[in-house]
Amino acid sequence: MGYRRKAAGLPVYMLMGGKCRDKVRVYQSTGTPKAANDLIGRYGYTALKSSSQQGTAPRRMPPEIRGIAQRAEALRKAVGPDVELAFDSHATVWEP
Predict the structure, then answer these.
(1) Within a domain: residue 52?
(2) Could you tell me which residues come within 8 angstroms of residue 39 by beta carbon, excluding any fewer than 6 positions away?
(3) Which of these, 45, 86, 91, 94, could form a disulfide with 49 (CB 3.0-4.6 Å)?
């Protein structure tokens, strides 16, 4: 594709049909409810991602699930109902 782009003198998106949107929605990672509110206030984010756990070591399930629920609840209270939240386990939550 590189040689065609160069031969045509066009950016790749033009070779693929042209512009299809004016904006792309993004999310930002956050750690604490205060940091989340700072991101929303400063940059206008409407979607945030947070780690589902604290630290990186694998955790035992019942206590870890309670911790995830508590962190999710605190983040939801801080940002309100209109901000979308995602939680990433980083493949370390599940017991063997």
Answers:
(1) yes
(2) 28, 30, 45, 48
(3) 86
Tell me the residue range of the domain where 27 lies: 22-88
pLDDT of 47 strictly over 90: yes
* Tokens found for residue 23: 């904006």
pLDDT of residue 89 exceeding 70: yes
The answer as to whether 8 is a domain residue is: no
Q: Mean pLDDT throughout 1-14? A: 74
pLDDT at residue 22 greater than cutoff 60: yes
For residues 84-93, give the mean pLDDT. 77
Question: Do the domain assignments include residue 37?
Answer: yes
Domain assignment present for 13: no
What would the 3-class secondary structure string for the chain be?
CHHHHHHHCCCHHHHCCCCCCCCCCCCEECCCHHHHHHHHHHHCCCEEEEECCCCCCCCCHHHHHHHHHHHHHHHHHHHCCCCEEEEECCCCCCCC
